[in-house]
């Protein structure tokens, strides 16, 4: 079974400093990664969008 965390990790692994610099910067630390991961989980549940679709929204919020 493909876990939620694996799905999120796959989406985040495509994030680059040019596409989403603020998110990419936060992903450089364990705490930042966990924070972004939690925000993606919450957004996926509330907005019913994929993990990959959450990244631009988070970038705009930061």
H/E element order: HHHH
- How large a portion of the residues is in β-strands, by DSSP E? under 5%
Helix content: over 70%
Q: How many angstroms separate the termini?
A: 32 Å
Gyration radius (Cα, Å) is 11 Å
The main pleated sheet reads as: none
Mean pLDDT: 95
| Alpha plus pi helix count | 4
SSE-based structural type: mainly alpha
Q: How many domain units?
A: 1
Outline type: globular
Low-confidence stretches: none
Quantity of strands, as a count: 0
Describe the protein's architecture and organization.
73% of the residues lie in helices and 0% in strands. The radius of gyration is 11 Å and the shape is globular. The chain is built from 4 helices and no strands. By secondary structure, it is mainly alpha-helical. The protein has one domain (4-61). It has helices at 4-13, 21-26, 30-47, 51-61.
In short:
The chain is mostly helical and 62 residues long.
Provide key terms for this protein:
mainly alpha, single chain, 0% strand
Helix and strand arrangement:
Blueprint: H1 4-13, H2 21-26, H3 30-47, H4 51-61
Helix pairs in contact: 3-4
């Amino acid at each position: 079974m493909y876990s939620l965390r694996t799905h999120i990790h796959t989406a985040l692994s495509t994030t680059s400093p040019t596409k989403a610099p603020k998110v990419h910067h936060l992903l450089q630390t364990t705490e930042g990664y966990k924070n972004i991961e939690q925000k993606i989980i919450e957004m996926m549940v509330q907005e019913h969008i994929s993990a990959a679709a959450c990244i631009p929204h988070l970038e705009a919020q930061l």
